[in-house]
């Protein structure tokens, strides 16, 4: 569920932002709890597509947040070093105070019976016209872009990315996703200039 909306005028400024974030992250325990923290920080440092010729990333037209709440299972994602070894990954969203959404991510380390890691954060809508653009924070004051770029008609699946296209999650209300539905998602991701070869399936328990 998923930044610092600042314009960095030069690569040195971006490097400084990344360096500051890494120093903060090193003060935490290196496990799944900081996985999305790193996403938040690095997404904020990037702030714009790496390829200046890449088309703008489009979100869905509208998200009913009440229907979006609840538990999602990670079907596939772009692999990241800080999420290495995670299986049975889930995200749960619930209403919080002051129009915020409470976020709780979980995964089992190294195996389906492995140690449970939990990360708790919060999200807020930044585009009230669509509710499709949100920001997520697991590590104040850093916020990361959480854009809903594909969504099932019955909210049976969702696809989350960010403008830099460095991060990508395919989520489902169930632990598995129909192959035809998954194939359709991949086709639309290609149209959005995502590299689907980078996707890695997430191991989930049997239904």
Structure report:
The protein has a single domain, classed as Lipocalin. It contains 4 helices and 9 strands; from the N terminus they run H-H-H-E-E-E-E-E-E-E-E-H-E. The chain is of the alpha+beta class and 207 residues long. A hairpin with an 8-residue loop joins strand 1 and strand 2. The protein has an 8-stranded antiparallel β-barrel with strand order 1-2-3-4-5-6-7-8. The longest helix is centred in the N-terminal third of the chain and has 15 residues. 21% of the residues lie in helices and 32% in strands.
For the record, the CATH class is: Mainly Beta
CATH topology: Lipocalin
Strand order of the largest sheet: 1-2-3-4-5-6-7-8
Q: For this structure, what is the CATH homologous superfamily?
A: Calycin beta-barrel core domain
The poorly predicted ranges are: 2-49
Which helices and strands occur, and which strands form pairs?
Blueprint: H1 11-25, H2 35-46, H3 65-68, E1 70-77, E2 86-95, E3 101-109, E4 116-125, E5 133-139, E6 142-151, E7 157-161, E8 168-172, H4 179-191, E9 200-201
Antiparallel strand pairs: 1-2, 1-8, 1-9, 2-3, 3-4, 4-5, 5-6, 6-7, 7-8
Helix pairs in contact: 1-2
In short:
The chain is of the alpha+beta class and about 210 residues long.
Supply the key terms.
207 residues, alpha+beta
């Amino acid at each position: 569920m998923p930044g610092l909306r600042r314009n960095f005028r030069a690569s040195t400024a971006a490097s400084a932002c990344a360096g500051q974030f890494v120093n903060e992250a090193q003060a935490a325990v290196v496990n799944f709890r900081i996985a999305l923290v790193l996403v938040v920080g690095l997404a904020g440092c990037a702030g714009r597509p790496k390829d200046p010729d890449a088309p703008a990333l489009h979100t869905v037209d509208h998200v009913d947040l009440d229907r979006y709440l609840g538990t999602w299972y990670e079907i596939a994602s772009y692999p990241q070093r800080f999420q290495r070894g995670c299986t049975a990954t889930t995200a749960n969203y619930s209403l919080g105070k002051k129009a915020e959404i409470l976020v709780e991510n979980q995964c089992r380390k190294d195996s389906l019976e492995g140690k449970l890691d939990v990360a708790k954060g919060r999200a807020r809508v930044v585009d009230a016209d669509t509710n499709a653009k949100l920001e997520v924070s697991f590590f104040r004051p850093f916020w990361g872009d959480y854009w809903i770029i594909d969504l099932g008609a019955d909210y049976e699946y969702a696809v989350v990315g960010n403008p830099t296209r460095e991060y990508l999650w395919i989520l489902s209300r169930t632990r598995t996703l129909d192959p035809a539905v998954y194939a359709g998602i991949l086709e639309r991701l290609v149209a959005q200039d995502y590299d689907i070869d980078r996707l890695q399936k997430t191991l989930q328990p049997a239904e």
